[in-house]
Amino acid sequence: MGNAMTFMTVEFVDTNVLVYAHNRRDERRHPVARDLLTRLTEDGTGAVSIQVLQEWVNVVTRRVPVPLTLDEAARVIEDFDSAGWRIISPQVGDVIEALAMMPRWQLSWWDALIVIAAQVAGASVLWTEDLNHGQKFGSVTIQNPFHD
Questions:
Q1: What is the pLDDT of residue 2?
Q2: Which helix (H) or strand (E) holds 62?
């Protein structure tokens, strides 16, 4: 047959995974998160949202034992962009869909926005420790990279 195009799956990363990837003090979660981000960067399959990046900046510049400088945080975000990560910005319809998703799935506002962003990215996996491992939201499956 002709040239069949192969489509790589997209994998969306939540804030907590990004935080652990940059917090060396968590000896169990740090290497797991770092290795996941490395794989997604090398594979070209990583995705995050503006919300995730905003939350991440707040945590890693203010709330971790060894905070990043604002310049360091900016460089990390630039690296995601230059490495080809999909960076999802919510649209009005996404916000409305998140509102509808909250009662249906009993999600917080912030978690609903994350799930919608993962769906918009076309992700098959949402890496997070904040939702139930294995739970499905349409075509998106929750995976906790630290799940034992």
A1: 42
A2: helix 50-62
Summarised one tens digit per residue, pLDDT across range 33-88 is: 999 999 999 999 999 999 999 999 999 999 998 999 999 999 999 999 999 999 99
> What three-state secondary structure class fits 58?
helix
Q: What is the pLDDT of residue 148?
A: 77
CATH of 10-143, one of 3.40.50.11420, 3.40.50.11810, 3.40.50.1010, 3.40.50.20: 3.40.50.1010
**Which helix or strand (DSSP H or E) is residue 116 part of?**
helix 109-121
Structural domain spans, the chain: 10-143
Q: At what angle do helices 50-62 and 70-82 cross, to 10 degrees?
A: 150
